[in-house]
Amino acid sequence: MPLTLYNSLSRSLEQFEPLVPGRAGIYVCGPTVYSEPHVGHARGPVVFDVLRRWLERQGFTVRYVVNITDVGHLTDDADDGEDKLAKRAQLERLEPMEVAEKYFWAYFDAMDRLGVRRPNIVPRATGHVTEQIALTETLLERGLAYESNGSVYFDVSGWDDYGQLSGRDPSELVEGTRVEVRSDKRDPRDFALWKRADPEHIMRWPSPWGEGFPGWHVECSVMSTKYLGDEFDIHGGGLDLVFPHHECELAQARGAGKPFARYWLHWNMLTLSGEKMSKSKGHVVDLASLFELVDPMVLRFHLLRSHYRSLSDFADEAVQASAAGLRRLRSAYASWPATAGAGTPAEAWSEARARFAAAMDADLNTPEAIAVLFDVARDANKARDAGDFGCAAAARALFDELLAGVLGVDVAGPGGDDSELLESVVGLLLEQREEARRRRDFAAADAIRERLAELDLSVEDTPEGPRWRRSV
After folding, report:
1. What secondary structure letter does DSSP report for 276?
2. Class of 287-404 per CATH?
3. Could you tell me the pTM of the whole model?
4. pLDDT in tens, 249-272
5. Order of strands, edge to edge, in the sheet holding 231-238?
6. For 429-462, how does the pLDDT look when each residue is reduced to its tens digit (9 = 90+)?
7. For the chain, which terminus, N or C, has the lower number of CB atoms within 10 Å?
8. Do the strands 231-238 and 23-28 form a parallel or antiparallel pair, or are they unpaired?
9. How much of the chain exceeds pLDDT 90, in percent?
10. SS3 for the chain, per residue?
11. What confidence tier does 178 reach under pLDDT thresholds 50, 70, 90?
């Protein structure tokens, strides 16, 4: 079954056909590095890390580019307000580039803990100002932009396809729909390619129109095409970026004669206890604090338990359910032998592997792929209990291949393969239970047994003494 992806541009599922056979170029809008990364920053990187892993498993050579916005992203997400980095720099009494460096590394440290592999290329907006000026000049030459009082704006009225990605009718985008209208715009729908720097603005560069800084949207058009070519395969981002950011990217790139991205993939939002996250209201959870409470792999697993195009809620009960599910898979994995010697059938779990692949090829249906792995865990445990260790060993290899290799979830757990430690700890508890039984303190003995059962460890009393096994 070929890989199909939902293309926001066509609003339909499409078979993925790369521009160059065997190669895939992917660009994803990365963070604006002005504050601590929070849980909302985790979903997109995890989803695209899985897409990258799946493509590579199919034999593709992937060039994965994630940009860093370190200038030009204003506080109202459009053409007015303060630069987010400059504002943060004033609050922390740092240079803007100190802020960028601080939160750049905080972001990638968090992604490392989530098992997200580093991109092939991480371009920064401040390192590509020359190219952004050049693209702006091209649009001026083509009559699709105009200079006004030291700023340059894209002329939306001159581009008939504006609204193609978002589905918005340009004629209905009137004054006041998103931001207060700048007096130097001809039309409130127009957006900045280059902004004149006010005297107090710190981040500024020389240009043909005076000192200023690039618009937020032009940065991504430049960085994506510089490293992936004027036409490339996949452009990704959050659903909240479809308009205006991606709409503007598409308009200015194609306006400059670049075919640009062929497939547009957007992940849906992550809510916090059913409510939209908001930094201004303090309704966010930063990843560094979260990782003190939750195994990062639990968060990754939780994010993959819902389809990337559906809303995903980050609530305590939901995360606890994900933690319990991952614990079941890890416990099963640890109970299967690593090897079973000769005789293990080569076709073991071939049907499960095919079902997993079908789910992944169906627009990255990770919830269905995870459901396949739960089925494998159930059936492999039955095989193990029946003495079919070859089948159980093959299931362990399958988890290494699919749960760890494709979904990127650490199978062994935070402490690695802790089977010897578990054996020792459970042995001590069973000794305490036996001592309680000899004292005829059956309440204490039953309490130990019940506590082990809560941890998916069952105890069987035999003439030779108590035996325990994983009950998942």
Report:
1. E
2. mainly alpha
3. 0.84
4. 999 999 999 999 999 999 998 888
5. 61-66, 23-28, 231-238, 260-267
6. 787 788 888 888 888 888 888 877 777 777 878 7
7. N
8. parallel
9. 59
10. CCCEEEECCCCEEEECCCCCCCEEEEEECCCECCCCCEHHHCHHHHHHHHHHHHHHHCCCEEEEEECEECCCCECCCCCCCCEHHHHHHHHHCCCHHHHHHHHHHHHHHHHHHCCCCCCCECCEHHHHHHHHHHHHHHHHHCCCEEEECCEEEECHHHCCCCCCCCCCCHHHCCCCCCCCCCCCCCCCCCEEEEEECCCCCCCCECCCCCCEEECHHHHHHHHHHHHHCCEEEEEEEEHHHHHHHHHHHHHHHHHCCCCEEEEEEEECCEEECCEECECCCCECCEHHHHCCCCCHHHHHHHHHCCCCCCCEEECHHHHHHHHHHHHHHHHHHHHCCCCCCCCCCCCCCHHHHHHHHHHHHECCCHHHHHHHHHHHHHHHHHHHHCCCHHHHHHHHHHHHHHHHCCCCCCCCCCCCCCHHHHHHHHHHHHHHHHHHHHCCCHHHHHHHHHHHHHCCEEEEEECCEEEEEECC
11. very low
Give the number of other CB atoms < 10 A from CB of residue 345: 10
What's the one-letter identity of residue 303? L
pLDDT mean over 190-208: 89
**Which pLDDT band, with edges at 50, 70 and 90, does 101 fall under?**
confident
Q: Is the CB of residue 217 less than 8 Å from the CB of residue 190?
A: no
Tally Cβ neighbours within 10 Å of residue 395.
25
Arithmetic mean of pLDDT over the chain? 87
| Beta-sheet pairing, 260-267 with 465-470 | unpaired
Domain 4-267, CATH class in plain words = alpha beta
